Amino acid sequence: MNSTETKQSVAPAAADQDERIQRVSFWKKALNRPELGALAGAVLVLAFFIAASSGTGMFTPAGIINFLEVAAQLGIIATAAALLMIGGEFDLSIGSMIGLAGILIAIPAVEYGWPLWAAILLAFACAGLVGWINGNLVNKTGLPSFIVTLGFLFILRGLAIGTSRLLTGRTQVGGVQDHIPGDWFAALFSGEVATGLFSWMAENGWMATNFAGNPTVTGIPVSIVWWLGLTAVATWVLLCTPYGNWIFASGGDANAARNSGVPVQRVKISLFMFTAFSATIFACIQVMDTGSADTIRGLLKELEAIIAVVIGGALLTGGYGSAIGAALGALIFGMVQMGIFYTGVNTDWFQVFLGVMLLVAVLFNNYMRKKAMEAK
Amino acid sequence: MTTRTPMIEMRSVSKHFGSVIALSDISMQVYSSEVMCLLGDNGAGKSTLIKTLSGVHQPTHGEMLLDGKPARFKSPAYALDAGIATVFQDLAMVPLMSITRNFFMGREPTVGWGPLKRIDWKYADRVAKEEMAKIGIDVRDPSQPVGTLSGGERQCVAIARAVYFGAKVLILDEPTSALGVKQASVVLRYIAKARADGLAVIFITHNVHHAYPVADAFTLLSRGGSLGSFRKEEVSREEVLNMMAGGAELESLDAELAEFQRDDKAKKASLAEQDAQPVNETSSTEPPSPRTASGY
């Protein structure tokens, strides 16, 4: 009698507890996504500016395209920086690579009459080489990538200025826009995506369909397409491919990864090459857009990219983060930058906001990681 | 037993790091369905030996034979492909990654082809869960980070991973050293199971109490050299401990042995004659211990 009583009283309690564990683990699962903080932040910033900028035109289609374009340019390099940071390394030479790549495109095309596609390919080849050297130096010397790429921050900037002045006597090269028409490769980095890809994206619901029917916006700037495309590919790679698993492993514990048969060195070299490529994509779009190259382009972009990635939930120590988070980080960046402009707040305050966002994001991320690592 | 081909054999293997001779002239045979315990004090060369076996280091002299065929591994990946799985002390696990991601790290199962080739997560999650269930660990959610598992569970994930990927030789580096008694016994039981499954197991430890119950043979290392291999039938627990302590330095060795026996005695005494004299005083006045006078 007694034993049955205890059994009865124990069984429902156990079931209760099980249910509770399930519920907690569901929430934990949701909270464990690295981009959660960035998503909340993006919604918050969006709500704030919708309220604060009413009637200013920030949220007309043209205004939206405006801040999306800012976000997109940063997002392109932030995606690559995110993969690299998840892989456990930094690249501080991204900004300088942007400047150098612009010069490498403009000078051969304008001064030496190269077809634009050849000049762009030259820039990509040089970027690949820079990334390869960065990766190999980090691998072979075991030095922190912070130092190695800090060196390249100055080397590449100096190379850009030096080469430009040596060959043209100037640090700015204009007149690229005359070479764009008819160049199949340059078309990938210039103008707007109006018809084919644009309608395809609208069908897929990636962009609000009212843009498609709206005559005030002729198309989506190509930078936004690159941004979304790169984010999608990077997310796919991280979540669904063996290579993505290797990136997480290399950043989480390089030694453990190596001992499990992951080619850590190759992974890191390829990631450094990808950041250099992303800087070149950025430079291509910028050069096509403005029609000129300037050796000081891309200044501080490496830090902005890191900010976007960290706001996106990546850990500075590697092994954790997401490409979608980086995209959200870039989106927040774009919304705040343009939002401050639209709402008429002095733009000096933008940097204050950026710094505060960064600190809040890092503190939040650290807290979340501790939560995730708590014993089950 | 002697007519069988050893699953893995080392023939006069030496490893030098510059002028340091980390291993000299080590020979060892390990057969499948056997547990070879590699014993040795700190600095005896255990770690170098297993790193050589698992492809982290390449031997300076000598050769290794895998299933009778000469083998040389350029990196851990080659050793893995050849069927030598090593569970390092650091477990080669990334705490922030999920159990499944860790389980399949470096050998992800894929579906699809070309650019659409992707990890088969459904299959991977199921296998990870099943393999963990086989060793009695119920994983609620294989996507939870490994960092949330206890030390013993992590050890088991690492071993389960090695076994799952068709290891012929399983090398375990101090798998029980950081574990409590209960968790250690889980791991030891799993080692016995791996042996029953036909693996050749090399079990590195300096804890004879963990080694003796599961071992079939012992190899003792000291200062980079081998003191020889022994079948379990040939040696007693005390003799193994004896040899581990250094052989030549008889005095300290005797002392250690005596201390060990006295501990046993003291335990028995404390269990049997609880209400006799206090245990501490009994042992300190006990005559046969040579430790008291000179020993240390």
- Mean pLDDT score of chain A, rounded? 84
Distance between the termini of chain B: 43 Å
Fourth-level CATH superfamily of the largest domain in chain B: P-loop containing nucleotide triphosphate hydrolases
Percent strand of chain A equals under 5%
Could you please say which CATH topology of the largest domain in chain B applies here? Rossmann fold
Q: What CATH architecture of the largest domain in chain B would you give?
A: 3-Layer(aba) Sandwich
Number of domains of chain A: 1
Using the coordinates above, name the CATH class of the largest domain in chain B: Alpha Beta
Question: Which descriptor suits the 3D outline of chain B?
Answer: globular
**Main sheet attributes: strand count, strand direction, barrel closure of chain A:** 2 strands, antiparallel
Q: How much helical structure, as a percent, in the residues of chain A?
A: over 70%
Helix content of chain B: 25-40%
Strand order of the largest sheet of chain A: 1-4
Number of strands of chain B: 12
Shape of chain A from CA axes?
globular
SSE topology:
The complex is a heterodimer of chains A (376) and B (296).
Chain A: H1 2-32, H2 36-52, H3 61-86, H4 94-111, H5 116-141, H6 145-168, E1 172-173, E2 192-193, H7 196-203, H8 210-213, E3 220-221, H9 222-240, H10 242-252, H11 254-259, H12 264-290, E4 293-294, H13 301-311, H14 323-343, H15 349-373
Helix pairs in contact in A: 2-14, 3-9, 3-10, 3-12, 3-13, 3-14, 4-5, 4-6, 4-12, 5-6, 5-12, 9-10, 9-14, 13-14, 13-15, 14-15
Chain B: E1 8-17, E2 20-30, E3 34-40, H1 46-53, E4 61-66, E5 69-71, H2 76-81, E6 84-87, H3 99-103, E7 110-111, E8 118-119, H4 121-134, H5 151-164, E9 169-173, H6 181-196, E10 200-205, H7 208-214, E11 217-222, E12 225-231, H8 237-244, H9 250-272, H10 279-285, H11 291-295
Parallel strand pairs in B: 3-10, 3-11, 6-9, 9-10
Antiparallel strand pairs in B: 1-2, 1-4, 4-5, 7-8, 11-12
Helix pairs in contact in B: 5-6, 8-9
Family (chain A): Belongs to the binding-protein-dependent transport system permease family. AraH/RbsC subfamily.
Protein name (chain A): Xylose transport system permease protein XylH
Subcellular location (chain A): Cell inner membrane
